[in-house]
Structures are given as C-alpha cells and as structure tokens.
Write a structure and sequence with these properties.
Dehydroquinate synthase-like, alpha domain; 11 strands; 46% helix; alpha/beta; binds glycine; 2 domains; 7-stranded mixed beta sheet; single chain; two-stranded antiparallel sheet; Rossmann fold
Length: 379
C-alpha cells in the first residue's frame, strides 16, 4: 500500500540547554503529533511519567476541531485529558479564572507530571502557562496556539502570566513548554482582523532582525493575505526561528537583547492603554501604529530616513493595519508609556530602528522629543 503523503512541516528548535524544545509548524498533519509529543515528554523529568492532562481552551476555540484533535493525540500515547472551557477574551486572563483552573487540577488529582495544554490564542497560552508555572511549583506545559499572533509570539519563549484588574501581564513567570505544535490551517478560522494583528508581529521580526525576510513579506503580501498555506508555514516558522534565537541568548530579558522584541510595543502599549483595552485598537494594530511612530522618532535622531518609515508604513498598510495616531491624546499616551517595564531610572527606553533588520534599545530620546513627536502624530 502506498504510504500517505508526508505532511509539510518545519521544526524550529529553541536551544535552552536542558529546557530546549521544538516548535513544530505543520500544515495539518495531526497524525504526526502523538509521536512528536511522546518524544518531547520523554526528554523531561516531569513529562516522562505523564498520564494526565488538563486542556485549557475558550468557548470559541472549543467549537473548532483543535481541542478534540489534541485530546485524541494525547489519548494515543496513553494520556487521559480533562478539558476546561473558559469564557473567551482578556477578562479570563486573571486570578479568578486561574483559581478555577487550580481547583480543576485538584479535582483531577493532578501531580507534578500532569501536563497543561493551552489550545487557543494568546490569552489561553498566557493563562494556561501561568497555571502550569505555579501549580505544585511547576507542571509540564505543551502549547497548541491557534491564532497567528500566538503562533509567532506568545507561545514561544516561556513568558506566561495573568493581569491584575488595572495592570496587564504583571503577575507571571518564565516557564518554557516541552513543545509547541502549530497547525497553520487554524489561521483559516481567524477573522481578517485577527490575521492582520498577527501580521503586525511578523513584520516586526523583519524590521528588527531580518531585512531579507521583510523584503519577502513585501513580495508576497497578497498571497499571505490570501492565506496560502506554504507561505503561512514559512512566515510562522521564520518568525519563530528569529524569536527562538533571541530567547536562547537572553531567556530572562536580562541583557537587553530580548527587549528588541518590543519594537513598536512601547508607544503601542501607550496607544492600547489610552484607547482602552478591547477598545479602538487591538494589540497588533497598536503595535503597527507604535512601529511607525517609533520609526518617526528614529528619524528625528537621524538613525533612519523618511523613506525607511514610509516603506514600513506601506507594508503595514498593505496588510490592512493602521499606521497613524491621529485622534489620540498625546499626553495620555506619554503617561501610559511612563509605566513601561523597560524604563530605567525614570527614563523612557525604546527600541528604535538603525536600518532594516537592526534595532537598538536606547534612552536617547528625551521626554521632550517624545512629547513633540506624539503631539505631531496625534493631530
Ligand atoms: N513578546 C515579547 C517576548 O516574548 O519577550
């Protein structure tokens, strides 16, 4: 009998010594998951004797096939799973929901070998990862991100956490997964707006680390928007490779290297907070606006020219992302930026472009530079 065609997949290693793991980026191909997962679990003390799992998903993703496929893959290697379905949205990323999940783990008599498996977008990964990092001082974690944003960013690198009512992502940990499984076919289930938000982070990788990748995105923008599977696999895998390289050199954000991933995020977070979370700007949209604004700031410092910013804004525009801050209150944006975790000694630190594929963390921009930039851009 002819063997079934091999599923196209790309494996991206994340090199972190004994905490190393693979991100598998596949086009479908769930048949391969049990063997991949079994070998990932076998490599770890916590994973080797694993017989139980808690799948954490939300009500929207629960209607899609991915939680069931994950459950079937776990069952195929003798792991029995319980599924917890939480309400969709950022409101679930808090200590109340975390407490209900801890109770669920207690009810299933979880031990330190019980696997936690978030299936869904960034909220599920951050929340499920936080549960895994804290219950019984750490459970093994296996990520199944189903949104482009989670696939290229939050599911890789081990940052997990929840929000407090007034502060985002403030309670958390670094807790690396044993493996990450991406089926790029899940991108087909995303509304256009969510696809675009993920693309903002993909563009970011080109600007900060890989000029040829940026050019590749320019050349293929239409086919990417049309969700061509091979291109989705390529952009997810390349984004994960670039992030994996940064994370393996500065896992805990201690040398400043990992901070480069925050290009567009300092002004972006200010925009998001000013417009109100869940308000006018989704995260990826705020990052798009933030990248253009930070590039304008780099222009003022003489680091890049206007053509650089226009090229960036043009690609973001082709991906249907916003590039302007007009209508926002510049003072409110600046005030939110003052609360950024990267700031040091009262100075605002930003990641600014030097040239395509290269950025630098700097406090070279004064509060006055920022005030006048934001005033011009928010008009
Ligand atoms: N999303 C930025 C980081 O993982 O460091």
């Amino acid at each position: 009998m002819p063997s079934p065609p091999e599923t196209a997949s790309t494996t991206v290693p994340v090199a972190l010594g004994e905490r190393s793991y693979d991100v598998v980026v596949a086009e479908g191909g769930w048949d391969a998951l049990p063997a991949r997962l079994e070998s990932a679990l076998r490599r770890t003390w916590a994973g080797k004797p694993c017989r139980k799992a808690l799948i954490v998903t939300d009500a929207n993703v629960a209607a899609l096939p991915y939680p069931d496929r994950t459950r079937e893959a776990l069952a195929a290697i003798g792991i029995e799973s319980t599924t917890a379905v939480v309400p969709p949205g950022e409101a679930s990323k808090g200590l109340d929901t975390a407490a209900t999940l801890y109770e669920k783990l207690v009810a299933m008599a979880a031990d330190r070998h019980t696997l936690v498996v978030p299936v869904g977008g960034g909220v599920m990964g951050d929340l499920g990862g936080f549960i895994a990092a804290t219950f019984a001082r750490g459970l093994p974690l296996f990520m199944v991100p189903t949104t482009l944003l989670a696939q290229v960013d939050s599911s890789v690198g081990g940052k997990v956490g929840v929000n407090l009512p007034r502060v985002k992502n403030i309670v958390g940990a670094f807790h690396q997964p044993v493996a990450v499984w991406v089926d790029v076919a899940s991108v087909n289930d995303l509304p256009d707006r969510e696809l675009r938000c993920g693309l903002a982070e993909v563009v970011k990788y080109g600007v900060i680390l890989d000029a040829p990748f940026f050019a590749e995105l320019e050349a293929n923008a239409d086919a990417i928007l049309a969700r061509r599977p091979d291109l989705l696999r390529r952009i997810v895998a390349r984004s994960c490779e670039l992030k994996a390289d940064v994370v393996s050199k500065d896992e805990r954000e201690q040398t400043g290297l990992r901070a480069v991933l925050n290009f567009g995020h300092t002004i972006g977070h200010g925009v998001e907070a000013t417009a109100g979370y869940g308000g006018g700007f989704q995260h990826g949209e705020a990052v798009a606006v933030g990248m253009v604004a930070e590039s304008r700031l780099a222009e003022r410092l003489g680091w890049v020219d206007a053509a650089f910013t226009e090229r960036l804004a043009r690609l973001l525009g082709r991906f249907g992302l916003p590039t302007s801050l007009s209508g926002l209150d510049p003072a409110a944006v600046l005030e939110s930026m003052g609360r950024d975790k990267k700031n040091k000694g009262g100075r605002i630190r930003l990641v600014l472009p030097r040239r395509m594929g290269e950025v630098e963390l700097t406090d070279a921009a004064s509060a006055d530079d920022l005030r006048s930039l934001l005033k011009d851009l928010c008009r």
